[in-house]
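Researcher: Next sequence.
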Amino acid sequence: MPEERVRLQILEFLLHEARWPAARIGCEAAVRDNAQTGNTLRADLVCYDRNFKPAILVECKAPDIRITGKTAYQIAGYNRTVKAPFLYLTNGVRDMFFKIDGETGNAVFADPAEMFPDIKEGSVSKPLNWFVERGFAGEKTSPPIKDWLTHALPEFGKLSSVETRYLDLGETPDGESIDNYYKIVNISDPKKLAIAFRATHLGETKINAVLNESGTNKGLLEINLELILKQLPYSAIHYYSKGTRKIDMADLFDFSTFTKDQIQELPRRINERLSEEK
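Model: Next structure:
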């Protein structure tokens, strides 16, 4: 069954990447749903802490099942009984992470690093296919960019002093979804920049950057890595209140080599281009 394959995939991740002890993972754990006259349901996976109290409730869906508010509501319903502080919802392609707000009791988006603290820097080497499966890179991306992304995407995930947040931003003017996990970078109060890598419907890879000022999104920048590889001018499109404009970002990356500075300097360089005279 597709759903079972997803559960085995997540179990492998928990054991080998998150380093969660097998003795503290419950499969198909019985959950009594008091809201439905005491019916006993089955939670796909429950991860327990060192005191054997529920820490993470995991709900797995088949890859063809879209992750929506309805599926999130289902796992939240299970958690009324389990009372885990973290929720992990996945269809094997898209992962969504939540934590329970201690004051309101509501589920809010969480940074995966909060849930899996034993994944240390450099302890897990993820192949590019891991990022492709989750929509952070396109499977038809040119080989030089793929080689570069193999180093760049893990480094992007390690950006320090920034917040990781899932943003529901809808679609681009071309109809492509830009909902994703973004790195939120404080540029200067009250300006913030949200940055994410994503796969396109053509199987290529783009970078999205959303500028926010005082809580209002001011514009979207789409950077086409294939155009940068070809050293073509106007490799980015800026969508903003006055319309659109093309921006020359051919010098943003050199895909023949990778350095950490290329990722560390990415927010600053994007902000500089967005701040240029319109």
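Model: The mean pLDDT is 84. Helices lie at 2-16, 69-82, 112-115, 128-133, 143-157, 225-229, 260-264, 266-274.
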